[in-house]
Amino acid sequence: MTPLATLEQIVEACQRVMAHAWMVRTFVKHSDEVEDFPELMNLVRAVFDISRALETRVADPAAYLQMLRKKLGKLRAAADQFRVDAPHASTHTNFTQAVISMDACIESLADLLATGHALLPPAALPAGRMPSRTAPPNGSETALPENDDSREDTPNESDQG
User: Fold this and answer.
1) Domain range spanning residue 39?
2) I want to staple 57 with a disulfide (CB 3.0 to 4.6 A). Which of 9, 17, 63, 143 is the partner?
3) Cα radius of gyration rounded to whole Å, the chain
4) What is the per-residue pLDDT across 91-127, written as a single tens digit (0 to 9) for each?
5) Cα separation of 55 and 63, whole Å?
6) Is residue 18 in some structural domain?
7) Interacting residues of 76 by C-beta distance below 8 A, sequence separation 6+
8) 108: helix, coil or strand?
9) What are the C-alpha distances in Å from 41 to residues 45, 69, 127, 129?
10) 152 domain-assigned
11) Domain containing 67 — which CATH number?
């Protein structure tokens, strides 16, 4: 793989990762198991939320990375819960692979965010600390802030069918 040298390349790579997350979302949303395990829809909603928030910022890499930083914590939490809920819904390989795929998406997005952060000019850096890939060792706080006060900038899941 070619090293990512520009913010635009980082955004393109993030969009490819988000395409994978979208496919997991689609699988889960349309699975029969979701009727008996509605908690699986938390992942569906989280992927939808971050996807819609990011797609409006593709042309502005600094804003894209800022939104990714803001939304990644919620996606990570949904993926963590999906890892717990999926085996209860089904032990089928499709669900096992969906968990692995979401873990890979989260890891890739965190890596890309860190790489993009390093490329941002100092004036574009948001206030506060940047997220880490893993939770702090003491477990007293989350690795990513869960600021989700931007509900108004993304449409509802139900609007998209």
Assistant:
1) 7-120
2) 63
3) 16
4) 999 999 999 999 999 999 999 999 999 988 877 656 5
5) 11
6) yes
7) 106, 143, 144
8) helix
9) 6, 22, 32, 30
10) no
11) 1.20.1440
